[in-house]
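Morning!

This is the sequence you dropped in the shared folder:
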Amino acid sequence: MKTARFSIFFLIFFTPLAFGTKAPWSYGIMEGMIGAGLFFFALAVIKNQVQTIEVPALVPLLIFLVYILFQVVPLPPGVVKFLSPHAYAIHSRAYELFDAQGWMTLSIHPQSTVFQFFRYASYTAFYLLTIQVLKEKGALQSIALSIAAYGGLLALSSILQLYLTEDMALWFWYTPENSMVMGPYSNHNHYAGLMEMIFPLVLGLFFFYRPRIGETSFIRGIIEILNQEKANIHILIGASALLVIVSIFVSLSRGAIISTCLALSVFSFLLVRRKTNRRNSLLIIGVIMAVALAMGWFGWDQVFERFAKMKNPEGVLYNTRLEFWKDSFQIIKDFFLTGAGFGGFVHIYPPYKSLIDNRVLNYAHNDYIQLLVEGGIIGFSIIAVFMAVFFFKSFKAFSKRRDALCVYLYMGSITGMVSILFHSFTDFNLHIGANGLWFAFLAGLAVSAANTNIRGQHSPTRLVSVEGIFNRRVFTGVSMGFVVAVALFLVSHLGGAFYLAHIKDKEITSQTSEAELDAIQSIARTASAFDPLLSPSRYFEAVAAIRKNNMDQAELLFRTAIHLAPLNSWYLMRFGRFAARNGQAEKAETAFSLAVQYRPTLPAYTLQYGTWLLSTDRIDQGLALLKTTLELDDEYSDTVIRTLLVANVDHERILTAIPRAPGPMFAYADFLYTVGRQSQGQEIYREMLAILGELDNPKISNYWRVYRFFIRQKNIKDAMAALEKAETAIPGYPEFKIELGDLYRRQGILFKAREKYEQALYVDPNNKKARQRLEKMDSQSTEG
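The structure's back. Tokens below.
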């Protein structure tokens, strides 16, 4: 029993400090410790040292876990087609690519779904364990006080870290660029998500330890409070609560700030509903004032500026999350019943992505939308039933309580849960290991607080004991089964990840030696043996087999890798090149086509497919794809132009394949000039002036590029035309006017030169260059 209790204490404090528990090693520790806690509790049950008690809403959670497993069970194609036509289509294309048939899963990425099963199973076990272990007043009070101390210290450390370090989590770990670090988290929203769950719990304790005083004067009341034993604890807990909520505001997480304010409203509502002491209302007002004063010291400006960024330049509320959600709704429509498989969002989102960038979106930034994407309406409904049963049963028990500790702990726990549920509309906190665990913990704590007997009744809890030897055996059997399953999963998952880490960054080229290829294949096989659902190990083994000229083995390995990850465009593109090399044109085209279909916003795939189409003399199709490549990213301009020239595409058709955009047009014009086709290059530069005029926000550098090109050709007429166009397009930029004035002056058109210099000074009265030129002209005029 002590070991089970230790595991709860350890995990709620360790998981946030493990950088939020996002890496395999921290997940492994979390799941292993939950398994260990459940194992020792089950041993105590077997020895009749403790009694198991009823766990509210456990049945929906168990059904949910069974449903996740169902998503990875291979089913006949007809069944999958009936339940999820789009999942069937994805798996069928992978099978058809290799002229094969077979059973398939509802999940589009089984390995991710298995991982999510054990994550959710661990949360369920932690919820169960919390209720079984924290059923006595002493345990509840000690863990609540520990959380108050922990929250205050973590908040203080995080605030100091924010102002004293740069891009460092937990004072020593450097985070990726563009991270908004706060405390041990690389994402400020997730730190704030943890703190908004801790804050109401600490606030509840603050109310519980409030010293009681009679009707007296203000001064006497203060003296009376300070003379009470509870006063010191009350002040310390109040300081902790203040630090926690201030750290939420300082983190600048808009979702957390709004959620915390809403949570305070819920807490106040519960206070009013329970008709507690009227001084509690004054205490709430005091808390709000204290927060306002504390944030005044840190500066409210930064908070207001953060919220101001929610508007776009036109003053309309906008956030890229809206685009993510709009795309996700199309996925929900296509996978409405059973979803794409838990953990599958990162794999299913790219084919639906509308924003053109290289970002990989792992989460929907809305936990409810992601639940619908991955679990469909079935998974969403099961969780909705769990939440409804949980809140109904726990609130019903809470309504009958009169014990202050239980009342305030329940209010704090429920309010913390409600806060993160609010925040989940705009973020993915519940997909962060530590925050998901804390949510499960608060649920268990709320049940315990609502049912724990305080005044020494014969039973420490009002929850019903699980009687009968059969029920006890079922409980211990399921618990031990979970422990064994977690142990096997951790060995499999961590073993596969460990061996894959040795080869995942290796680049296999024609220069790779035979010995290195053998070593890569050996390591890849070991990784696959540990984790049979690991697709990258099959891919690396396939590439090594190609280099060893073992084509049959390579094709079999590609087949396995693509069946395990049918939406992986990189595997499909690499297999397409493999098939093209081996004369399998039909397979190559299917693979290239699927790669583009599944990652339509990545130019590398459209470039590869377009290049292959040109090699098969399908010029129009190839040109269309290469044009798409440049529309996605003009950094590919030189590569596309070389590809077109190697394919002997004529000048007129090349122009149809190049978008009317500065990058590609400049690249082609410069190429033409370097190979001696100056007239064609000049024609494109002249056309560029018209193209730049069509743009809403033309770049200054593009106009300078056209101007300098014509100056190098000593083509003053076109150079002046370029500057005149530039001046018209960007009238507030004085340098164009000064340069145009210089051209007029060199040609002896002095009144025009003066006019341009004066216009430059009108735009920028402090422009030294324009003033110096006017002074020089005046002095020359005087001398003349």
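Headline: The radius of gyration is 33 Å.

More detail when I'm at my desk.
O.
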